[in-house]
Design brief:
There is one protein chain. The chain is an alpha/beta fold and about 450 residues long. A hairpin with a 7-residue loop joins strand 12 (about 360-370) and strand 13 (about 380-385). It contains 12 helices and 17 strands. The mean pLDDT is about 95. This is Acetoin utilization deacetylase AcuC.
């Protein structure tokens, strides 16, 4: 008998930004009601799993939580991330052929440093799952395809210099929508150059346009990259009824995309048309993952003629596809030239990050070690004034799992050196090689290790 598709529901009854906020528990309750009414969950093709908790250590493999993981993260975050881990375990144990975590809170706007909620996200569920399976199962190459209408800027930032994680995001053009990023020039750092592929779509892009991009760009790159695991960051706000965006994707379009993409694990992200989109889109994704016929799945107000793109729209997409294919296929040449010119140096970038949900600004100074032997380690100096009026100045060092010994030792020395500098309130070290995570309170002189 064919293996079932694993499904987890977690509506997070005890977590809400506000009672009337678009990101609220009703997002998933309408979906759950429709799936059970239609009998989908009673089919042998589907196996429902119960949520489980991720640990603080799982979170710290990915994030520096300011001031501490205990103060920043609540149980709802751990359950949402833990649900993704549960399905990943079931998939890699051979119990299911694929899995869909229909959970909230979402995560793809959460970056390496997390001071507060931004874009409705506190921690990055997909990244936590990816680092979990890399550590537990030794998986190396992962592809993330982000289908949310908003650019997955958090996931991009986390894996921006990782050549073994391919991040592909198609989204409404950042000039017209939050978070204002996701342009074709955002292609990666260091050895990760060319494994970030952004596809900014014009507003009102329909099924035809999105599937053109899928067929002619996304799927060919995936075939060449040959990932060990394919993850769909499954935002559903590209739907034509979504109140926070301006796109024209349908439930049929989402289901067909999933059938072509064949993700191993899908994790819900955005989607805020609670009654008129989410129940149909989620059902379509589950049916496609389970190999069920979804040809009769349509929204009550569906009209194909209303959702078409003109020739100029499609001409733009063709040029976009050509540009990004060229970027991907020529990435190694660019990387080799960059390292030849900048051997044993640091790449430095300064940026300001806006937390829209809690209305605070973070200033960051980023340094990436350009090592000829590995992808290098990162040093992030971050400052933000929290809602309680306290300003935190923190230093963060991230050692990737494929770091060479010289960079590993050098990064640990940076961590010790930062502890002696009074300008920091907290200093953190993320050591994925040893799977140990440190936080040092400078004023108190206290270190905590996970």
């Amino acid at each position: 008998m064919m293996k079932p598709t694993g499904v987890i529901f977690f509506p997070a009854f005890d977590w809400a930004i506000s009672p009337t906020h678009p990101e609220r528990e009703e997002r998933l309750l309408y979906t759950r009601d429709q799936l059970f009414e239609e009998g989908i969950m009673d089919l042998p093709h589907i196996k429902e799993y119960k949520p489980e908790l991720a640990s603080f250590k799982d979170v710290l493999r990915v994030h520096f939580c300011v001031p501490s993981v205990e103060e920043r993260i609540i149980e709802a975050h751990l359950v949402a991330a833990g649900s993704a881990l549960k399905l990943a375990d079931a998939f890699l144990a051979g119990e299911i052929k694929n899995g869909f975590a229909i959970v909230r809170p979402p995560g793809h706007h959460a970056m390496t440093v997390s001071h507060a909620n931004r874009g409705f996200c506190d921690i990055n569920n997909e990244a936590i799952m990816i680092e979990y399976v890399r550590k537990k199962y030794g998986i190396k190459k992962v592809a993330i395809v982000d289908t949310d209408v908003h650019h997955g800027d958090g996931t991009q930032e986390i894996y921006y210099n990782d050549p073994d994680v391919l991040f592909i995001s198609f989204h409404q053009d950042g000039r017209t929508l939050y978070p204002g990023t996701g342009f074709t020039s955002e292609a990666g750092w260091g050895r990760g150059y060319g494994t970030t592929i952004n596809i900014p779509l014009p507003p009102r892009t329909s099924d035809e346009g999105i599937h053109y991009v899928l067929d002619n760009l996304v799927l060919p790159i995936l075939e060449d990259f040959k990932p060990d695991l394919v993850v769909n960051s499954a935002g559903q706000d590209n739907h034509y009824t979504d109140p926070l965006a301006d796109m024209c994707f349908t439930a049929q379009g989402y289901a067909l995309l999933n059938k072509k993409l064949k993700p191993d694990i899908a994790v819900l992200e955005g989607g805020y048309s609670v009654e008129t989109a989410l129940p149909y889109v989620n059902m379509g994704i589950i049916m496609a993952m389970a190999g069920l016929d979804f040809s009769n799945l349509k929204e009550p107000d569906y009209s194909q003629n209303r959702l078409r793109n003109g020739s100029s729209h499609l001409d733009y997409l063709k040029k976009l596809v050509e540009k990004q294919l060229f970027l991907y296929r020529n990435r190694e040449e660019v990387v080799n030239k960059q390292y030849a010119e900048n051997k044993n140096r640091f790449y430095v970038e300064q940026k300001s990050i806006f937390y829209d949900t809690e209305y605070l600004y973070e200033m960051q100074n980023n340094k990436l070690r350009l090592c000829p032997e590995c992808q290098g380690y990162r040093v992030i100096e971050s400052t933000a004034r929290h809602r309680d009026g306290i300003t935190y100045n923190v230093g963060c060092i991230s050692i990737p799992v494929n770091c060479c010994r010289n960079c590993h030792d050098e990064a640990r020395a940076v961590y010790i050196d930062m502890q002696e500098k009074a300008r920091y309130d907290m200093v953190y070290l993320q050591d994925r090689i040893d799977d140990r995570y440190y936080s040092f309170h400078v004023q108190k002189g206290i270190e905590k290790v996970w």
